[in-house]
# Entry
Amino acid sequence: MSTRKINDQLELMKGTLDLLVLQTLAPGRAHGHAIACSIERRSDEVLQVGHGSLYPALQRLLKLGLITAEDGISENNRKARFYRLTTRGRKYLFAEASKWQKFSNAIARILVPVVE
Amino acid sequence: MFGFKNRRKELLQEIETHIEIETQQNIETGTPPEQARHAAIKKFGNVLVAVEQSRNVWGALWLENLLRDIRYAARSLSAVPGYTATLVCTLALGLGCVTAMLAIIQSVLLLPVDLPRPGRLVQIYAEERPEGTSASPQALSYEAIDALRRETRSFAGVSGYNTMVRPVQAAGEVRVNPLMEVTPGFFQTLGVSARFGRLIGPDDGKAQVAVVSDKFWRERLNGDPKAIGAALTISGKVWTVIGILPAGFQAPGMTGAPVAFLPVSAGPSGQDTFKIESAIVIARLKEGVSMQQARTEAQSIFAHSGHTYAEQHRRLGMHSYQELVTGDIQRPLLALFGAALVLLLIASANAANLEIGRTASRMPEMSVRSALGAGFGRLMQQLVTENVMVSVLGAALGGGLAIVAISAVRHAYAGKYPRFDELAIHPLVLFAACVLAVVLGIFASVAPALNVRRHTVGRLAARSTTRKSRLPGLLVATQVALTCVLLVTSGLFVRTLRSLENVELGFDPRGITTLVLMPENQRQDPQLSRDIETRLLHKFEALPGVQSVTMQSEIPFSNYNISLHGTTDVAGRPYKKGDSAYYSFVSTNFVKTSGIRLLKGRGFLPGDESSGAIIALVNEAFVKMYLSGRQPIGVTLRFHRDPGDTEADLPFTQPMTVVGVIQNELQGADLGAPYEPMVYLDHLALPKTSFLSAVFSMSGQYAVRSALPETAVATELRAVVKQDAPTMVEMSLKPMEEQISQSLGQRRLALRLVAGFGIVALLLSAVGIYGVLAYSVALRRREIGIRMALGSSRREAAGLVASQAGKMVLMGLAFGITGAWAAGHAVRSFLFGVKALDAVTLSATGALLLLVSAAAAFVPAMRAARVDPVETLRAE
# Structure
């Protein structure tokens, strides 16, 4: 797969991926690998291009102040970087999630089979 | 940079941890350890892309990339010094010319003159061809200035001046010097203040005071700060210097001259001594008053306060003071700027072609980088950086060239053209040149970048196919077209110069020496001056080796001409508004000395002046305009009297009788000027009561015909003046042919500049044609080899290149000729004796371009012919 194609797909998924990361961090802190695995379990599409694309998204969320990072020790005793939601991030996730919910409800209503 | 190195390291570490955890998990799920890590890496994807994109999020990546690109570009450019040098020199030439011309235009035409609120200063002038008598077509009378000053509500100040050249004695030395007579409000209107002392003010109307320019002070008063109070003797009167002007002030029309300013010698009623309209009028608009309003007001003031019929019906024009100062050189400068822009376009086309060629040779590198994950934008950025770097380098060199050129021009022409002493390259111009260079760099990258895009989207195999691109050919055609335009324009100028040199002068300038004398005391009795001048005339005629001598109030190419332009009644023809002629006063031997052909009737004879009647000669143009189909001999002429004019308003009322018709002769100092209707009168016949007799006795202009060498004639004439008329000052003594050649100086300079641009353009085009063909031969080597292996001859291989060259050049010529026609039309006012679309010039230019193109195509064609088919096939 060429680099350009990857870029296009990322562009498309950026918003989705950001939201997924935030969602994953909602219960508590996690390191990069855990986030990647969690997202992978929940969505087969978004991370198909490789775990690597998670990192630019993390940097973006850090810069926006939606998450923070701290150093910690992973479950198998490795030094790792853990991410957690900030208050702002939680608010943002809530707002975006309800927006998505409304949107998907609307779509669902449109796609309801027409009663003859 | 911004701690990004550390963050990058941390990120890489984090990613490493990620991969290790993944590997660990893979091992736990039973993957063999050696494959576990590989699978983890594969799952992660491109680490560098992830890092790169993360950095992009951090920001300032562009800066980092830019610095890296610059380093990289510098390295890769220094690897191809020939290419870089050609490119930089091409751009330096183009940008240098444009920068220099921009600087000249900005300094001379755009920057406001160095006076307070210069935008409010205007000149008021007579718009249509003046009737009645005037000193210059635009001049107005001092009475009119006074009326304007008293009645206006639109102007904060109205002032006037007229210029003349007189013998001036300063610090014990008499020299011919330009003078400006100014109204008392002149300096106040302009807003100039004195460097030393004070300037002429409202109370100095009658005072014998003078103000001098900085140059006059340095040259004639030794730059002495105590020069205030020094005496100038002009025309037997003593004037006291009261002030010295600052160095930066240049009076209009007096560029580089040492000038003395005197209060205008106005009579009791505000009338100047000559009773003719001789003042150039400068006014300052009040704040908030538009030029249009002011003009309308001035017009109405003229309508009721004008002293003569002509003055009351004068249509006034108004333009900015700046226009008065630099109006004459505005159009030539803009035309030269156009030529410089064309040159820049040619240089840019060359640059674009060179860059296309270079990018093509770097295609494999681009493909590899693209395959490694570099986005198109990233590759584009690299290309743009490199091109912009080269063009900025070119702009820097060009700027250097321009600085040298500008200082050379300032040095050579500061005293010749207005405001050239202010020439400088302002930072704004350099900035504009830099912006231009950056834009050029970006544009030049577009075509190569599109090539890159095409290639990187396709496969690496593209390297071995022969792709034809139309763009380089089109660029060369454009170059040829533009070069054609420049060359045709210079060709037209050459033809103009030739026609001017062969213009029918009417008189025969060979062997003529002109001498201008002026009485040291301008106020001496006109009759006395006239007697001295006539006595000298006879003395000159008696000199050995002198064939004949004439006096003329108007000698072609003299700077001391006094011309009288008068409305004229021709007997037997109803007067129409605008019927007028120029009057020249000559002595008896005029026809013989000037070598002018007498077409009908007779010339002046000795004794005519005492016959009582005023006899006149007229020229062909006069006959054609007013006497066509009639017998001109014996016709009576009179100065026309407009309703309301008194006798005193006319030069004289006596009738003039035409006794002869002569060939048209050149008037003034412009070889290209059309012939005007002329009336020649014997200066001795001028009625003594006429105010003209005072005007025309102020200077004596002699034309001396002799077979002796110029220096011998000059020595003889000077000896006579020294002995017989020591009170007469020599203003000018020159062979007429020298003056004719001087009059062409400005046109020669323009021709040299445009031809210079043309030659540079031709060189650049030749380089362009050569470059494109050489590159194309290199690309098509394989194709040519295969063609030869299949039986094509060497001649046919060369023909392939030649036909490619021919197509480009012919297409260019077709557009070029169209462009040249348009350009010829644009410069038609500079042309003389040649049409805007001139077959001779066009065919000569076409032939030259074809020849140069053929020479440029020769080497690549030979190279194509020498391709070895065996070698090509082996390489396959």
Notes: Chain A is about 60% helix and 15% strand. Chain A touches chain B at residues 3-4, 6-7, 10, 31-33, 36, 49-53, 55-56, 58-60, 63, 74, 76, 78-81 (CB under 8 Å).
